[in-house]
Amino acid sequence: MTEAKLKKYAELLVRAGGNVQKGQLVVINVDVNDARFGRMVRDCAYDAGASEVFIIWEDDSSVRERYLRADSSVFDTFPEWTVERFRHFDESGAVYLRITSSDPGLLAGTDPDRRMRAAKAASIATKPHAKLMMDGTLRWSVCAVPSPAWAKTVFPDLTEEQGMERLWESILKGARADGEDPIADWKAHKQSFVKKVEYLNKKQFTSLRLTTGLGTDLTIGLVKNHRWVGGGGKTKDGVETFPNLPTEEVFTMPDRNKANGKVVASMPLAYNGNLIEDIIIEFKDGRVTNYSASKNEESLKNMIEMDEGAHRLGEVALVANSSPISQMGILFYNTLFDENASAHLALGRAYPKNIEGGGEMTTEALTAAGGNDSLIHVDFMFGTADLRVIGIDENGNETVFFDKGEFVF
Amino acid sequence: MTEAKLKKYAELLVRAGGNVQKGQLVVINVDVNDARFGRMVRDCAYDAGASEVFIIWEDDSSVRERYLRADSSVFDTFPEWTVERFRHFDESGAVYLRITSSDPGLLAGTDPDRRMRAAKAASIATKPHAKLMMDGTLRWSVCAVPSPAWAKTVFPDLTEEQGMERLWESILKGARADGEDPIADWKAHKQSFVKKVEYLNKKQFTSLRLTTGLGTDLTIGLVKNHRWVGGGGKTKDGVETFPNLPTEEVFTMPDRNKANGKVVASMPLAYNGNLIEDIIIEFKDGRVTNYSASKNEESLKNMIEMDEGAHRLGEVALVANSSPISQMGILFYNTLFDENASAHLALGRAYPKNIEGGGEMTTEALTAAGGNDSLIHVDFMFGTADLRVIGIDENGNETVFFDKGEFVF
To answer: How far apart are CA A389 and CA A402, in angstroms?
Structure first.
């Protein structure tokens, strides 16, 4: 990938994704192996006027070795200084930019019990930070870069070099970052969400019925005064950001007590360094009653058994089958991409912005309104080229607004 | 450099340097560019039974960019979470392993005022941690690996590849890590210090007169009950470590009020990312009265003006001219190596282990005994092939125990 193309991608992350303003602290999370791109993002952040750029270097290989070789007791705690670090950055009004390149099978063969304990300790300790990330207080954006292991998973028949190049091309295309002026392309892209969001917010369907040829048949209630959101949005201080590069979804808040039926996943789910395949989940009155997977069911179990909220839905998102990622026909084994190729649901915490006035609600008020709370928020994909969605209003009238994988209003 | 040789070097750092014991937390500081060697050290630490290995990834290029581009205000503070992190590691009984590869001119052209403010803020905030490092509570060890910029400074006429290979060879040779069994070599090396240390501790000279052909003529008093130390030593919990790989010096504690005369440096000093050349310092009654440098005198000024203790001596160290590093005749522009080629003095804080019972003394008691306290501890080299040291006892009797660059008892 050429220096010039990478620079445009880095600028997209800084200027459109996190929308860094003059005088702001910028925090970048990036793997040691991606130092070259991480430093480009750093330089773009200084160009944008950042007061300081702090890089949190990550190292996937050390994460894996720790799961394999550290003492079992270390997975029950999450060091206070890490929480203190988030607090410091959060209070400084940091913009968080995350660059991911994870091997989808990074943690294959590690002890699921260790992973579960570590994930739980981290979720509990970082809950205040996660709340600020989700309620629109903090500005953040995530993008992806390839790694050899990831490229091998996506393109098993290519050489490492070919696979890396192909994955770079696919990522830039999927993230609409391969044009002459990606920042302008994203401005135009943002406009395409307006019609969908306006239509759905006006309709205020009380429930949705989702059906696919794979066997999904699920009816979910939506909370009263729910807001459909898509194409980025404003944080509380009024700055436009795109939390995800790419983003193709419009999404809203299900009622935590209203989901009935069955959902059959249409893609594997990369969760906590493992690939969970052929997920099927059944719901009654909003709660998971049954679940299975053909591979790594243990990981699925650990996820759902995390807490009560992990048994319930926090997000329903629709993606047109004509989205560029979907059209590429590539399974990325990476939620950032796969969720933008396919309609999906999230188990766990809801986004406060998906309900009118949610940003100012306490957790208790949100829960009372039907919003879900949990230590986790995990998207899983069920959308297909034959997905149909029926909106049902308060009088029981049905409207097919999404059919054969596309919006049809 | 071959994998096998690197592995031996990593093992030397873990097993002899830090002497990692079963069940201990190990903290590794390493630059992102040296990830390969850092991960080898990590794996050796797990092999040695570490309960957990935490890597603090550093990035020289981001340090430089921060000095050049961050807002001026950030250099006056040192984030509390970093202090909290030290506290967490210190209280967990961590073993610190540091891998350095700095470009000696990394910070050339950056604002000396920013550097001074940052160094001061860091020194103040980390003083409790630095005390535990120096008083024998914490186990730690430092080693070096080459970087292209460092290799270019040392071997300006070689290509990058040749320079890196040559610097690797020089480092491993200088660190006595190029043999079949470096750990055994270090056990033997340790024995060579015993005779020197025993002789000097028995003599209990009240002062030393240091003279060289370059113009050094300095008489320094030593504190009462001073201890000469060399070849590593035991931490308070009785574990043998080698804080520096390499180590060739024997050193003790000057009286902070007793230094008179002039010292002429025999090598440039790499301090805070700048090379200070041709240092000359004059002392009266222990305190710096005059100083100069032909290059980067500003850095020398910032160092000495840090606080009162930076105007006084905290260490005097002797190194035989026959040491392997000295014999290589290479100027490393790196204190870890250059201080082990040459006799040196340190401005700033004294090591409590250099006085009888020092590990249990309060800072006040140490100061009262003549031990120096400061935010800094910076070694600078003055030893030459014609260095002569005269020991003077309490009755005024003189003994030449070091002459023409060698110990002569």
So the answer is: 5
Q: Closest-CA residue in chain A for B54?
A: A62
Beta bridge mates, A270: A275
CB–CB contacts below 8 A, A to B: 82
Structure tokens at B370: 């003549």
pLDDT digits (tens, 9 = 90+) for A349-406: 999 999 999 988 999 999 999 999 998 999 999 999 999 999 999 999 999 999 999 9
pLDDT at A134: 85
Q: Tell me which chain B residue has its CA closest to the CA of residue A47.
A: B69
> What is the model's pLDDT at position A102?
82
Tell me how far apart the 2 most distant CA atoms of chain A are, in Å: 59
Q: Give the ipTM of the model, two decimals please.
A: 0.91
Cis peptide before A112 (omega within 30 of 0): no
Looking at beta carbons, which residues of chain A come within 8 Å of B117?
none
All residues of chain A having their beta carbon less than 8 Å from the beta carbon of residue B51 are 70-71, 73-74
What string of H, E and C letters represents the secondary structure of chain B?
CCHHHHHHHHHHHHHHHCCCCCCCEEEEEEEHHHHHHHHHHHHHHHHCCCCEEEEEEECHHHHHHHHHHCCHHHHHCCCHHHHHHHHHHHHCCCEEEEEECCCCCCCCCCCHHHHHHHHHHHHHHCHHHHHHHHCCCCEEEEEECCCHHHHHHHCCCCCHHHHHHHHHHHHHHHCCCCCCCHHHHHHHHHHHHHHHHHHHHHHCCCEEEEECCCCCEEEEEECCCECCEECCEECCCCCEECCECCCCCEEECEEEEEEEEEEECCCCEEECCEEEECCEEEEECCEEEEEECCECHHHHHHHHCCCHHHHCEEEEEECCCCCHHHHHCCCCCCHHHHCCCCCEEEEECCCHHHECCHHHCCHHHHHHCCCCCCCCEEEEECCCCCCEEEEECCCCCEEEEEECCEECC
Q: How far is residue A54's CA from residue B81's CA, in Å, rounded to a whole number?
A: 13
pTM for the whole structure: 0.92
Chain B neighbours among A 7-46 (CB < 8 Å)?
A: 23, 32-33, 35, 39, 42-43, 46
pLDDT, tens only, A197-238: 999 999 999 999 999 999 999 999 999 999 999 998 899 999
